[in-house]
Automatic annotation (TrEMBL):
Pfam families (UniProt xref): GerA
Residues that span the membrane, as ranges: 271-293, 343-361, 367-386, 398-422
Name the record gives this protein: Spore germination protein
Organismal lineage: Bacteria, Bacillati, Bacillota, Bacilli, Bacillales
GO CC annotations on file: membrane
Coiled-coil ranges from the UniProt annotation: none
Family: Belongs to the GerABKA family.
InterPro entries tied to this protein: Spore_Ger, UPF0353/GerABKA_families
Organism: Paenibacillus arenilitoris
BP-aspect Gene Ontology terms: spore germination
Domain of life: Bacteria
């Protein structure tokens, strides 16, 4: 095996690498570290202090005298190299020795824990994940103070060497789902993985589907709930987003704020979201189909209004719809990519100006403008961003099918969509459960949010070894202190 000092000379080609010799009465010590990764306070107070105060220490005494908990001895250069790239200081005792003392002096710089920006909630905790894996694990661990809560850490990426943590509760999480998740992460072959969203796409069952098969979140309380339900959570160092699986289609229309609201209000809001999704997908295709092929189906009440609004429009309905849909998507992308204050202004002013100008220029009807605006608003009701983007894209195949075959085209496109969803899985679990295969007992927390006295069982489709949360016989008992 190569000796360490020559390899340190190779590393010195990087300007942030520091390598120098510290002479003691007994032997020369070679110290190497990356100053961009090392905390100067730990280096000078806890490492260089013992070396200067006691110059005649042996190798074992030197190891014991360093007052840092995370330290170890190694002679494997690949291991030493990886540790130094994580902020460790390497100390070699003597020029001929291959043993090194590795002391963790990593300087962890990053933003502090703040409120959620994407999944903001009025009620409930106001903490969100940050880019530090250790901080994120702390946010989860303090919410799951359970001895069976397990964290398995892996490293992936030939260049990034990214730390990935897999969280689950032993005895609650199904081992098949856990082993499948671990295997897929270990089998990832990629050089640079900078964010957990990349990892999501790599381990999903069908990466060619526009439907996400994992749920990403920035909320530690949501992850704690998912883990306690029997799902597997994955976090990556450097990413403020965690994701968990397996999930079903109905999970994407549930926001964790539902569990902080009274169950009747939360159930109504959940039903509104599901209706919004259907309206967002089918509103404009139905407009194209009815005006192109099925005009006789228009009620006499609405017929004069529709005819009056389209009397000066030179385009067929499909062109009219595509112009407005593309304009909405352009405004949405511009608002998302620009700085916050400018993006809000562009979205509001652009929507008003373009909508008014399009109607006055007879490029579109005011009736369609209302439908497109409501459809765009309905797509925002989906709480998960990736599913919201899927619904936005899903409208266009339905529009083209409606132009080709009318209502029959919408029906054919719907059948193709259902067939695709029937074939999708998440970590091997059917994507459409509990609707298909039907699990009547699991519909309670998919379509509506029941009271907590009904949460006595976990979802059956998660196949948890411990399906019972609590004894349902005592769930409704409310004894006062004077009884």
């Amino acid at each position: 095996m190569k000796s360490v000092p020559p390899l340190w000379k190779e590393l010195s080609e990087s300007s942030d690498f520091v390598c120098y010799e510290h002479q003691t009465n007994a032997v020369s010590l070679f110290i190497g570290y990356f100053k961009s990764l090392t905390d100067p306070k730990v280096l000078h107070q806890h490492i260089m202090g013992p070396l200067s105060n006691e110059p005649d220490l042996s190798f074992d005494d030197l190891y014991r005298s360093i007052p840092v908990a995370e330290k170890e001895i190694s002679w494997d250069w690949d291991f030493i190299h990886n540790k130094m790239l994580r902020g460790n200081v390497a100390i070699q005792y003597g020029h001929q020795s291959h043993h090194c003392i590795l002391v963790n002096a990593a300087d962890s710089k990053g933003r502090s824990v703040t409120i959620p920006e994407i999944e903001f909630t009025v009620e409930g905790p106001k903490e969100a994940f940050v880019e530090s894996l250790d901080v994120n694990l702390n946010l989860i661990r303090k919410r799951v103070p359970f001895p069976e809560f397990r964290i398995k850490e892996l490293k992936i990426g030939s260049i990034s060497k990214a730390r990935v943590a897999i969280c689950y509760i032993e005895g609650v999480t199904n081992e098949q789902f856990l082993n499948t998740c671990i295997q897929r992460i270990e089998d990832v072959q990629f050089d640079q993985i900078t964010d957990s969203t990349k990892l999501q796409q790599m381990i999903e069952d069908n990466s060619n589907s526009i439907f996400p098969q994992t749920i990403g979140t920035e909320r530690p309380d949501y992850v704690a709930w998912a883990v306690s339900s029997g799902q597997v959570c994955v976090l990556k160092d450097g990413s403020p987003t965690a994701f968990f699986a397996p999930v079903s289609l109905g999970s994407f229309f549930i926001t964790y704020e539902d569990y902080y609201l009274p169950w009747i209000i939360a159930s109504i809001l959940r039903l509104i979201r599901m209706f919004s999704v259907l309206f967002s997908v089918f509103a404009t295709p139905l407009y194209v189909a009815v005006l192109t092929y099925h005009g006789q189906g228009i009620s006499n009440v609405f017929l004069p209004t529709i005819v009056a609004s389209r009397i000066n429009v030179p385009f067929p309905p499909v062109v009219e719809v595509l112009i407005m849909e593309l304009a909405i998507e352009l405004l949405r992308e511009a608002g998302a990519r620009l700085p916050t204050k400018i993006g809000q202004t562009i979205g509001i002013v652009g929507g008003i100006v373009l909508g008014t100008a399009a109607v006055e220029a007879a490029l579109t009807s005011n009736f369609l403008l209302i439908i497109v605006a409501l459809s765009a608003l309905a797509s925002f009701a989906t709480p998960i961003f990736r599913m919201s983007a899927t619904i936005r894209i899903l409208r266009f195949p339905f529009i083209f099918a409606a132009q080709l075959w009318g209502l029959l085209g919408i029906f054919i496109c719907t059948l193709a969509l259902v067939a695709h969803l029937l074939r999708l899985t998440s970590l091997g679990m059917p994507y459409l459960v509990p609707f298909y295969p039907l699990r009547a007992s699991d519909l309670y927390d998919t379509v509506i949010r029941p009271p907590y006295s009904k949460f006595h069982h976990r979802f059956s489709f998660l196949r948890s070894p411990k399906p019972v949360r609590f004894d349902k016989k005592n769930a409704n008992l409310k004894k006062d202190i004077d009884e």
